[in-house]
Amino acid sequence: MKVSVTVNGKLVEREVEPRTLLVHFLRDHLGLTGTNIGCDTGQCGACTIHMNGMAVKSCATLAVQADGAEITTIEGLAQNGHLHPMQQAFWDNHGLQCGFCTPGMIMAATKLVANNPNLTEEDVRHGLEGNICRCTGYENIVRSVIAAAAAGGGD
Predict the structure, then answer these.
(1) Which of 16, 28, 72, 103 has its CA 20 to 30 A from that of 82?
(2) Is the pLDDT of residue 153 over 80?
(3) Which of 90, 65, 60 is nearest to 77 (CA)?
(4) Which sign, positive or negative, has the C-alpha torsion 105, 107, 108, 113?
(5) Measured between alpha carbons, how far is 104 from 74 in angstroms, rounded to an integer?
(6) SS3 for 36?
(7) What is the chain's mean pLDDT, rounded?
(8) At what angle do helices 139-150 and 102-115 cross, to 10 degrees?
(9) pLDDT at 140
(10) Can you tell me the distance from the alpha carbon of 39 to that of 125, in angstroms, rounded to the nearest whole number?
(11) Which residue(s) pair with 48 in the sheet?
(12) By the 8 A CB rule, do 8 and 71 touch?
C-alpha cells in the first residue's frame, strides 16, 4: 500500500506492506532511528512520536493508519542547529542515563507541557506514566520537564 506522510516537515511517500508498524516505517524506510523500539506492545513509550498534534506510540500504530498525517520525531524537534527547550532541559538536568527512553520521554513531555505549562511534580509524574525508564529514579526526568516548562518547552 502507498503511504504519504509529512515527517519533520517533509512530504514522503513509500510503498509498505499493510502490516508495517509505524515505528518500523520511520526507522527502516526513512532512517529515523531516534524513535526506539522497546516493547512492541505500547507499554514502555520508547517509540513515542507526535502525529497530528498528539503523542502517539508508534509501535501500536500501523504505517497505513498514518497516511496523510503530520508526524514529528525526535529528529524533528531541534531547529536550525539548536536543541528544542525540552531537549536542552534534559541535557542540562541530566534527565537521562542510558538514553534509550529519552526520545520517547521528550516527545511525550513536550505534549504534556504544551497542554499545561504550569505543571507540578505530581502532574509530570502522572503525565509520563506511559513512558518507562529502566535506569533512573525519574527525579532528573521530572526536574527536566519542569525546567523545560519554565523555558517554554512545549511544542
Answers:
(1) 28
(2) no
(3) 90
(4) positive
(5) 8
(6) coil
(7) 95
(8) 40
(9) 96
(10) 21
(11) 57
(12) yes
Containing H/E element for 123?
helix 121-127
Using DSSP, state whether 16 is helix, strand or coil. coil
Grid coordinates belonging to 52: 497530528
Q: Tell me the domains of the chain and their CATH numbers.
A: 2-76 (3.10.20.30), 85-150 (1.10.150.120)
Q: What's the sign of the alpha-carbon dihedral 102, 106, 112, 116?
A: positive
- Confidence at residue 136, expressed as pLDDT on a 0 to 100 scale: 83
pLDDT tens-digit series, residues 92-138: 999 988 999 999 999 999 999 999 999 999 999 999 999 999 998 89
Residue 78: alpha-carbon gap to chain centroid: 12
Q: Is the dihedral of CA 120, 125, 129, 131 positive or negative?
A: positive
- Note the pTM of the prediction, 2 decimals: 0.95
85-92 and 139-150 helices, crossing angle to 10°: 140
Q: How far is CA 126 from the centre of its chain?
A: 17
**Polymer length in residues for the chain:** 155
Is the separation of the CB atoms in 141 and 111 below 8 Å? Answer: no
Name the burial class of residue 125, with classes exposed (0-12), middle (13-18) and buried (19+) by CB atoms within 10 angstroms of its CB: middle
Q: Please, which residues have CB within 8 angstroms of residue 150's CB and are 6 or more apart in sequence? A: none
Yes or no: say if 146 and 127 are a contact pair by the CB < 8 Å rule: no
